[in-house]
């Protein structure tokens, strides 16, 4: 490289630093050599450099947004078992992850179902797909966010705290039912719902149907107003299935077989599963003093 070229290269490096084009700064020399060897037109070289800069910016932006979203790891649509929740349309869910109109309109998603039914997994998976599609998402336990908003209220900064959440296209509130039935907590939650109404979207998971939300909002009028705002523009999914964690535990128990300390009885009898109200046939019993 002659002295003039060396000077130009040094100047270009400084200018690319000032222009905040780190990717072009890192790769321009390699592509310039390739362009010289293959006789590229100037436009092709510039386009190639610009493409690399844009791709790297998109990668870094996605990385930042994924970190900011605070999504639980490993929860994707690909590893969500849609066969376990036949009442939920996989096609509809995947259509929602394109974002588009429903996020622009500030519409909501609400997932109902008993504990362990997959609500949190599905909510996180939808959030991840939306982040990958370019949207801003925040995943949080409802109780955690409510506590932060209560602190903001005591510091007289509640309005500003809620406004900061506007940067998120979707706010995922997991486990709404665990908010304490306390006027201070539920009032800040109601203010959040009201502030985002028709402006920004919410995705809420809840163990109880709307008829049980009086246990969350102590004021009946507040309950009615909150539900009204949430369902006005909303898609509802009901995951009314047995607990995934319970199913997994039962399958594991069956695969392990009977404990060696248990004997088979000649007659069967039914026992009640206290957590479900169902009955199951039990044809084994532990020997006295063993496995009890």
Give your account of this protein's structure.
This protein is α/β, with parallel strands linked by helices and 292 residues long. It folds into 2 domains: 9-69; 77-244, Rossmann fold (3-Layer(aba) Sandwich). 50% of the residues lie in helices and 15% in strands. It is built from 11 helices and 7 strands. It has helices spanning 3-18, 22-38, 42-69, 90-96, 101-104, 119-132, 142-154, 158-164, 183-196, 220-231, 244-256; strands at 108-112, 137-141, 170-174, 201-206, 234-238, 262-272, 279-286. Strands 2-3-4-1-5 form a 5-stranded parallel beta sheet. The protein has a two-stranded antiparallel ribbon with strand order 6-7. Helix 1 (3-18) packs antiparallel against helix 2 (22-38), helix 3 packs antiparallel against helix 6 and helix 7 (142-154) packs across helix 8. The longest helix is centred in the first third of the chain and has 28 residues, at 42-69. The protein starts with a helix and ends in a 6-residue tail after the last strand. The model is unreliable at 259-292 (pLDDT under 50).
């Amino acid at each position: 490289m002659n002295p003039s070229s060396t000077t130009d290269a040094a100047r270009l490096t400084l200018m690319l630093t000032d222009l905040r084009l780190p990717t072009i700064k890192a790769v321009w020399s390699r592509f310039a050599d390739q362009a010289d060897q293959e006789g590229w037109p100037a436009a092709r070289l510039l386009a190639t450099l610009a493409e690399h800069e844009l791709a790297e910016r998109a990668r870094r932006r996605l990385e930042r947004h994924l970190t900011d979203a605070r999504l639980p790891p490993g929860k994707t649509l690909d590893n969500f078992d849609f066969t376990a929740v036949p009442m939920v349309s996989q096609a509809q869910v995947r259509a929602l992850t394109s974002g588009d109109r429903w996020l622009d309109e500030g519409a909501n998603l609400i997932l109902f179902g008993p504990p362990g039914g997959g609500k949190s997994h599905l909510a996180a998976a939808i959030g991840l797909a939306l982040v990958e599609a370019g949207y801003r998402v925040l995943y949080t336990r409802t109780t955690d966010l409510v506590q932060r908003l209560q602190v903001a209220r005591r510091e007289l900064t509640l309005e500003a705290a809620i406004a900061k959440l506007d940067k998120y296209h979707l706010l995922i509130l997991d486990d709404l039912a665990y908010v304490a039935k306390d006027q201070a907590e539920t009032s800040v939650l109601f203010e959040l719902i009201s502030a985002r109404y028709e402006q920004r979207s919410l995705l809420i998971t809840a163990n109880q149907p709307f008829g049980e939300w009086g246990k969350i909002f102590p004021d009946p009028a507040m309950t009615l107003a909150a539900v009204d705002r949430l369902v006005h523009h909303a898609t509802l999914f009901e995951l009314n299935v047995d607990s995934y964690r319970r199913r997994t535990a039962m399958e594991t128990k069956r695969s392990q077989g009977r404990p060696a300390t248990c004997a088979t009885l000649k007659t069967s009898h039914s026992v009640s599963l206290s957590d479900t109200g169902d009955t199951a046939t039990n044809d084994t019993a532990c020997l006295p003093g063993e496995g009890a």
